[in-house]
UniProtKB/TrEMBL annotation:
It comes from Elioraea tepida. This is Dihydrodipicolinate synthase family protein. InterPro entries: DapA-like. The keyword Lyase applies. Belongs to the DapA family. Coiled coil: none annotated. Transmembrane segments: none annotated. Keywords: Lyase.
Amino acid sequence: MTTTEPMLERALYGGVNAAVLTPMGPDLAPDVPLMASHCRWLLENGCDGLGILGTTGEATSFSVAERIAVMEGLVAAGIPAEKLMPGTGCAALTDSVELTKAAKRLGCPGVLMLPPFYYKNPSDDGLFAWFSEVINRVGGGVKVYLYHFPQQSAVPFSLELIGRLLAAFPGVIKGVKDSSGDYGNMKAMIDAFAAQGFEVYSGSDEFLSRILHDGGAGSITAAANVNCAAAAAVVRAFRAGDRAAEEAAQAVLTATRRIATSVPLIAGLREIVARRTGNPAWRRIRPPNLPLAAEKVGPFLAAFDATGIGGLAHAA
């Protein structure tokens, strides 16, 4: 591969990645067999990769031991480790190291790492020291993707910090998931760092077509749990140079995203998956998150269906 190829083709996780939901048993422990079944469905229906144990996967509601058990259980169930991008960023440095080492041991190519999020307004020097310590303790062998989600973490990544990390850890700091919704920020990262092989992924479905054309790597999104067929159609059309088909698929993708975010996102996605699978266990969710209110379920599902996603859906 050459640097003249689109980033989509050069990136480790190029294309469509789902920020995977974590199903739970009656005791609210992760249901790994059910999660593995969902992961297989996602890979069969348009996903190129799987971002597990992130925001949508409610990772911060699980212990380190539970998160490692999910990683190990999925790989043992036959989900290819090379398709997994586990979330390993924690407030505690040593927890982040332990989770990242587990992902490395299992053969995951990369991890998605939140910044340490409890202490607010840390300096770039402090964040650089934190990431340096984690990377040095892990000892290489796994790529680090930065998780820029300032609305949730309240700790953003500045362009200056990303540049410092890239210079200090070439080949280790590999990319970013930007869930800020600020496309200007995504484009600024592409312009500044794509030439160094830095992969920029949108956390917002509505930007998939745009980011591919601008030199980004694709998307890592919550709604891909239910709209991955539409996202995959965008990528196929982009590769084929069929702009009309790409715009049509992107319109469906954007519509599904807007409906998904019209209610509490994780709860709404769980309702769609519960209906698709016929398994009400998907409605289980760990507090403080709650299931979607019963009176909202019918209108929400009807609005989702009205987006036209059914015309792009693969067979389940």
